[in-house]
Design brief:
Keywords: Activator, ATP-binding, Coiled coil, DNA-binding, Nucleotide-binding, Transcription, Transcription regulation, Two-component regulatory system. This is PAS domain S-box-containing protein. Residues 151-198 form the PAS domain. One of its GO terms (molecular function) is DNA binding. Residues 553-583 are annotated as: Disordered. This protein is an alpha+beta fold and 629 residues long. Helix content is 43%, strand content 17%. The chain has 25 helices and 19 strands. The strands form 5 sheets. It has a 5-stranded antiparallel beta sheet. A hairpin with a 5-residue loop joins β8 and β9. α13 (318-331) crosses α14 (347-356) and α20 packs across α22 (529-543). It starts with 13 loop residues before the first helix and ends in a 5-residue tail after the last helix.
């Protein structure tokens, strides 16, 4: 231990100054290193004087947040530790340390911080394991030495009875004896092996076919370094040119302190390896099934939460009756269905009704929002990926096609799939086979497909934005979802359904939908359709006073129903022009953005207030030139 000079001694005494552990004293409130012992100076690469003149944050560049969290935790709890801080060594390199700190009594606030070198701790751990491994080999070494002494005395009975292969080599690697078990496993007679180079005969090549040099062989290392070598994961070669996996122990033989050679005991572990491979395969399959079930369960819980307010398709209009007849016709088949209609008309509800009426009802309905998938994650989302397939692929992932196996796959907003990715989807739909990203294994799936879009796919095909072959593959059985303005007689029924749900959520039993309310709701054109109606009902329920609903709803034109006088100047009492419609839409969107604080997505966002999907609202904002607020 280095002597501490009088100039270097500190007020904390010899227990601090001469401690073999690196120690610092921080004053966190003024960002100062109050004191450092000699061990800390050696570990950090600075003199004690330099450390005392250094701010704590200067020792931890770019780590001020982590430093503040650590010091605050120590001050709050009295003691704390962390691996998050990586101080800069005096030579510029980064150190891996453990910080353990406690508070010191008195004022100002000070922390006593002890630094432990994690790399040195790891080296000690490795050395300890190596020592334990060596000790574990001593019984085997002693057993082999006894066997060798018995051989020298002429007692060959043990060798002949042993089920393990045993042979000996001298210091030049020449075979001195081979027991019967080794003869059986290797296919050679003892007379053919004794006196020959054993490595060149049975250990010359790795399992992969590459040459195995003598100087790399642990068997020969045993009588060069005098240590016992236990090896698993190599092969021995038979006389017929085939190989088999072995585990073996090479034990050095000494006489008078001189290494004479080694005794090798080996086992054929083919059956064990096969069993391990089967177990690994079974575990991988179980893991895959477990992951799939977990994802299915999480997905279904999410779907139940998001769809629990739907009790079925509501309505008595001719449009709804025609729709229900179509569902009855197609549900009993596996035909692909294309559901078209405006945003908010319940296309997903139609897909769910088809699934629930089909033979696949006991398997999941898996929904994919094609508009929400980033281009570079399309294949992974649809088909899954193997671990390590790309940066960030930390584990195998089951894709939506595989999750829907045996059930129904619902492709919502299918018109949003980029053109260059549509061919990959078409191939899977035609062949019912796919490969995960980064995996060569082909997987077969049995999936019933339902697609939905609010776009005119025929027009998209004409403009070259949608593949014609994919369109025909999807449009086997088209189903149109009628907008609310074409089935106004259903509006009161749907509104009553949403009001009951809102009353349960708000714990309001006094909410009533009057006949006047129903007539007013039926007069409105509902550009946002059912989704807009649901939001209007919920807002009215929240604003209700003494059970009377308060609707903030403009009156619609052209419904054919009695309407009150328009609340606008007389010169506008005519159908709106396109410019006026755009102005009205712009005004509504800007008002919603103002109420939501500029938020488009999420609860209380502008999209929810308007009863639109966030992607639809974003599109309309772009067309109208409305930027984010």
């Amino acid at each position: 231990m280095f002597a501490i000079t009088q100039e270097e001694s500190s007020v904390y005494g010899p227990a601090f100054d001469e401690n073999r552990e690196a120690m610092l004293v921080f004053e966190p409130l003024v960002d100062r290193i109050d004191e450092a012992n000699s061990a800390a100076a050696r570990l950090l690469g600075y003199s004690r004087a330099a450390l005392r003149a250094m701010p704590v944050s200067a020792l931890h560049p770019d780590q001020r947040p982590a430093l503040v969290v650590f010091t605050q935790a120590v001050l709050a709890k009295g003691q704390w530790w962390t691996h998050a801080l990586t101080p800069r060594h005096g030579e510029g390199r980064t150190l891996r340390l453990e910080y353990a700190a406690c508070t010191l009594a008195g004022e100002p606030a000070r922390l006593l911080v002890t630094l432990y070198d994690l790399d040195e701790r790891e080296r000690r751990r490795v050395d300890r394991e190596a020592e334990e491994h060596m000790r574990a080999g001593l019984p085997e070494w002693q057993r082999m030495e006894r066997i060798f002494r018995d051989i020298e005395r002429g007692n060959r009975l043990i060798l002949r009875a042993a089920g393990e292969g045993i042979y000996g080599v001298n210091a030049e690697g020449v075979t001195t004896f081979v027991n019967p078990a080794a003869e059986r496993m290797l296919g050679w007679r003892s007379a053919d092996l004794v006196g020959k180079d054993m490595h060149a005969t049975v250990h010359h090549t790795h399992a992969g076919g590459t040459h195995y040099p003598h100087h790399d062989c642990p068997i020969y290392a045993a009588f060069r370094d005098g240590a016992v070598h236990q090896v698993d994961g190599e092969v021995f070669w038979r006389k017929d040119g085939s190989c088999f996996p072995v585990e073996y122990t090479s034990t050095p033989i000494r006489e008078g302190g001189q290494l004479l050679g080694a005794v090798i005991v080996f086992r054929d572990v083919s059956q064990r390896r096969e069993a391990e491979d089967r177990l690994r395969s079974a575990l991988a399959e179980v893991d895959s099934l477990r992951e799939r079930l977990e994802q299915e369960n999480a997905y279904l819980k999410e779907e139940i939460r998001s769809e629990s307010h739907h009790q079925g398709i509501i309505g008595r209009s001719p449009a709804i009756e025609a729709l229900l007849r179509q569902i009855d016709v197609v549900a009993g088949t596996d035909a692909t269905v294309l559901v078209t209609g405006e945003s908010g008309t319940g296309k997903e509800l139609i897909a769910r009704a088809i699934h629930e009426a089909s033979r696949r009802r006991d398997r999941p309905l898996i929904r994919v929002n094609c508009a929400a998938i980033p281009r570079d994650l399309f294949e992974s989302e649809f088909f899954g990926h193997a671990k390590g397939a790309f940066t960030g692929a930390l584990r195998d992932r089951v894709g939506r096609f595989e999750l829907a196996d045996g059930g129904t796959l619902f492709l919502d907003e299918v018109g949003e799939i980029p053109l260059d990715l549509q061919g990959k989807l078409l191939r899977v739909l035609q062949e019912r086979q796919f490969e995960r990203v980064g995996e060569e294994r082909t997987r077969a799936v049995d999936v019933r497909l339902i697609a939905a879009t609010n776009r005119d796919l025929k027009e998209e095909v004409r403009r070259g934005r949608f593949r014609e072959d994919l369109y025909f593959r999807l449009n086997v059985f088209p189903v149109a979802s009628a907008p609310l303005r074409e089935r106004r007689e259903d509006v009161p029924l749907i509104a009553q359904h949403f009001l009951r749900a809102a009353a349960r959520r708000l714990n309001r039993s006094d909410l009533r939908l009057t006949e006047a309310d129903a007539r007013r709701l039926a007069r409105y054109d509902w550009p946002g359709n059912v989704r807009e109606l649901e939001n209007v009902i919920e807002r009215a329920a929240i604003l209700a006073e003494r059970g009377r609903l308060r609707f903030d709803l403009p009156e619609s034109r052209g419904s054919g129903l009695p309407q009150p006088a328009p609340e606008r100047p007389a010169d506008l009492g005519r159908p709106l022009t396109e410019e006026e419609r755009r102005a009205r839409a712009r005004s509504e969107i800007e008002a919603a953005l103002h109420l939501s604080g500029g938020r488009v997505f999420g609860a209380g966002g502008a999209a929810e207030l308007l009863g639109l999907k966030p992607t639809t609202l974003r599109s309309r904002m772009k067309v109208l030139g409305i930027g984010p607020t």
